[in-house]
């Protein structure tokens, strides 16, 4: 399994001090978090894509390219690449370029995002969201696998004898996860192509994600990519740790209560009971995270949201130290009883080896 962190890049006031970081401070903090993730032994750093305040990561490939130059092992990914409002030609070229610069340490999560106004800003209609996701990915998939592409669809000008450059590194496109909070059509799309399915696994009760992931697994098998338990599943999650669980709850409560996304709603206790959020000791985080396999089956990637709601960078880096402590335990526990035919998390090296086997 792969373990890592993802960020949405929110610029949020610290409710305990009232201070709001500048955009420059927040952007550099995200880089520091990525470097710390590699230092403590995590596998993945993923950034969201947003084009509206209070978020700063409008150009994921710029940030990830910079991080690629300062890391050696970390897989660089996105928490959402907006397949609906980005031109698939630009996605194909931008992420292939990043793939070359990072020596293959690149994959991406495609999604529609959760900000309605972004559609008209890029000349799109939110009512076409699902259709845009389906058509744009069909083109992206083709651009990465065919050297010369002819294309005609509903949402962009036709292509005639077009070649996206650079070509994917070693002829192997970046692995794609299709991210969704609520859309069965996206689970179907991931299954159709044999790609990964990333369930946000943050805001909703586990029963909701169980339905989506089971649908994806069933359709993955239906399309002939392998047995249902061999499908590629990734999960999000949220944690906040201190050595003493009472200290964790006391420290995190003001951040939870005032968070732009879920503040002023259910209590912290209600939210931790109903969703994957875990606030407590490292052992409590281990225990709850291990229940994910009971609910969703063996899976390949676990990412945690650590740096949101105004938490200061110092605190986030302390959280990453905790995560570095518990990840070896999680790796060992998740390996126990894992069927031998469940695939490992996709990497460029693994995909290249699989391609060589097919050619042979």
How is the biggest beta sheet arranged? 9 strands, parallel
Helix content: 40-55%
Work out the helix count. 12
Low-confidence stretches: none
Shape: globular
Structural class label: alpha/beta
For the terminal residues, how far apart are their CA atoms? 27 Å
Average pLDDT rating: 94
Backbone CA Rg = 20 Å
**N-to-C series of helices and strands:** EHEHEEHEHHEEEHEHEEHHEHEHH
Measured by DSSP, the beta-strand proportion falls in 5-15%
DSSP summary, beta strand count: 13
User: How do the strands of the widest beta sheet line up side by side?
Assistant: 3-2-1-13-10-9-8-5-4
Q: Can you offer a commentary on this structure?
A:
This protein is α/β, with parallel strands linked by helices and 360 residues long. Strands 3-2-1-13-10-9-8-5-4 form a 9-stranded parallel β-sheet, covered by helices on one side. Strands 6-7 form a two-stranded antiparallel sheet. It contains 12 helices and 13 strands. Helix 1 crosses helix 2, helix 2 packs parallel to helix 3 and helix 6 (184-193) packs parallel to helix 7 (206-222). The protein starts with a strand and ends with a helix. It has helices at residues 23-39, 60-70, 88-101, 118-121, 129-145, 184-193, 206-222, 245-258, 268-274, 282-296, 313-335, 348-359, and strands at residues 2-7, 44-47, 75-78, 81-82, 107-111, 149-151, 159-162, 175-180, 196-199, 233-235, 239-241, 278-280, 301-305.
């Amino acid at each position: 399994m792969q373990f890592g962190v993802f960020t949405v890049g929110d610029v949020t006031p610290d409710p305990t001090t009232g201070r709001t970081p500048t955009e420059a401070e927040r952007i550099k903090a995200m880089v520091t978090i990525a470097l710390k993730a590699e230092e403590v032994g995590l596998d993945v750093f993923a950034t969201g894509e947003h084009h509206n305040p209070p978020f700063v990561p409008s150009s994921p490939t710029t940030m990830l390219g910079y991080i690629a130059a300062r890391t050696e092992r970390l897989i660089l990914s996105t928490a959402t690449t907006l397949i609906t409002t980005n031109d698939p030609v630009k996605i194909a070229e931008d992420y292939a370029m990043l793939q070359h610069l990072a020596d293959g340490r690149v994959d991406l999560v495609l999604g529609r995002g959760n900000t309605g106004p972004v559609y008209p800003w890029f000349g799109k209609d939110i009512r076409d969201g699902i259709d845009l996701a389906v058509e744009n990915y069909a083109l992206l998939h083709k651009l990465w696998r065919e050297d010369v592409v002819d294309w005609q669809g509903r949402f962009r000008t036709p292509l005639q004898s077009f070649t996206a450059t650079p070509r994917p590194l070693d002829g192997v496109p970046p692995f794609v996860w299709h991210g969704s909070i609520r859309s069965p059509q996206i689970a179907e799309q991931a299954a159709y192509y044999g790609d990964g399915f990333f369930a946000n696994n943050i805001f909703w009760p586990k029963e909701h994600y169980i339905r989506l992931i089971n649908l994806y697994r069933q359709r993955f098998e239906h399309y002939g990519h392998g047995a249902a338990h061999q499908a590629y599943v990734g999960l999000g999650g949220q944690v906040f740790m201190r050595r003493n669980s009472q200290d964790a709850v006391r420290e995190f409560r003001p951040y939870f209560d005032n968070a732009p996304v879920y503040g002023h709603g259910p209590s912290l206790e209600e939210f931790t009971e109903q969703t994957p959020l875990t606030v407590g000791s490292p052992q409590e985080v281990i225990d709850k995270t291990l229940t994910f396999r009971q609910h969703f089956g063996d899976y390949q990637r676990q990412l945690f949201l650590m740096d949101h709601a105004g938490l200061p960078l110092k605190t986030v880096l302390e959280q990453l130290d905790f995560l570095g402590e518990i990840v070896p335990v999680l790796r060992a526990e998740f390996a126990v009883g894992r069927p031998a035919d469940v695939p490992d998390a996709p990497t460029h090296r693994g995909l290249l080896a699989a391609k060589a086997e097919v050619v042979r």
